[in-house]
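Dear colleague,

As promised, here are the two records you asked about, laid out in our usual form so they can be pasted straight into your sheet.

NAME FIELD: protein one
SEQUENCE, THEN STRUCTURE:
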Amino acid sequence: MFTCDFEFDLPDELIAQHPIEPRDRSRLMVVDRQRGCWEHRTFDELPDLLRSGDVLVRNNSRVIPARLVGRRAVTGGKWEGLFLREVPDDIWEILATTRGRPIPGEHVVVGQGLHLVLESKTRSGSWIVRPERDGNRNETTLALLEKHGQTPLPPYIRRGEGLPGDQLAYQTVYAQWPGSIAAPTAGLHFTAELFTRLAASKITWVDLTLHVGLDTFRP
């Protein structure tokens, strides 16, 4: 049976910590299956590599600010969570890390003062939490995340520590529908100018929406 081993050594100094500008100047490996060879090009050469009539499929999911950083109200210890999803009755499921052993009923304070009440822990290790909205019951979950959350970077990028420009850099230029907790990274290299060139070459595209969830972080 054919198997693949994706475990290999990748030195830290070879992992880009900031996106290249412009985006479409990133490197691109082109594999020629007929000739059994490959070559190194740049992403802005894509219109020259595709043919008239080809169709690209884009994932127009938008990354939400799902990273929540704060502290435990009782101990003051650092607490960090990753919003996974909203469940019925105004409850969130969150993957959390902190020192010590939080217990149900504890409060954590994140962002600009949002209180989260720890309700229970799931069998998979995530937490069910209830956000306290301080009287504004009409504020949506997305609005709360926009106010109190941060861009969820993968751990190999600055150990997840965000910078002011990350919200724009870690988003495709065609992102539309919010819901992903990580970027559909294959699309990050496209620019508006590149789509103009693709259209001029009679290369079209269609959109679908596939929100990226927790499984993208799992082995």
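NAME FIELD: protein two
SEQUENCE, THEN STRUCTURE:
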Amino acid sequence: WERYTGTTTVRKISIQVGKTGTLTPVAELESVEIAGTTVSRSSLHNRDELQRLGIRVGDTVVVEKAGKIIPRVVRVEEHGRTGSEKRFRFPKKCPECKTAVVQDEGGVYIRCPNHACPAQLRENLRFFASRAAMDIEGLGIKLIESLLQAGLLNSLGDIYRLVRHREILIEMERMGEKSAANLVAAIEA
């Protein structure tokens, strides 16, 4: 069991906004090797789990690889606190679009209710292009972010309009003629 746990420090806690608007706290950790891989992040799941753990920025935590794969914070080593640790305040507004967040009725999830939130669009595009959905090879998160910034993606349907913008794709950073051709072929497939 020891090989699947490690002790490390919480450098910061950030918030990720998912494709349905769910705000998920994530512990950014000092890198630690567990079961042969380097772990530097761990989901804290939701505000209730964050409070249950009592985790603070600067805390020493025990991390395990649940099922030998997914890292999770098991506990805080409170006896190691120095007083310099900082409590994390869950945001009242979406970190991306600044819309006031809401808690699911009777649930634990806190969401951004703005369906036009850039983070939700980015995550929806990422999922749509992933193997689990349309399997569009070459359309990863970095390219999605570049295409969003260039104004070429504003909806899922815009993915299919990219085939009309091959010249623009070729000029994008890390693309070139071959990558653009492969992306267009993957979209058409």
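A couple of things worth noting about protein two: The chain has a mean pLDDT of 93. The helical segments are 47-53, 118-129, 141-149, 158-161, 166-171, 176-188.

Best,
R.
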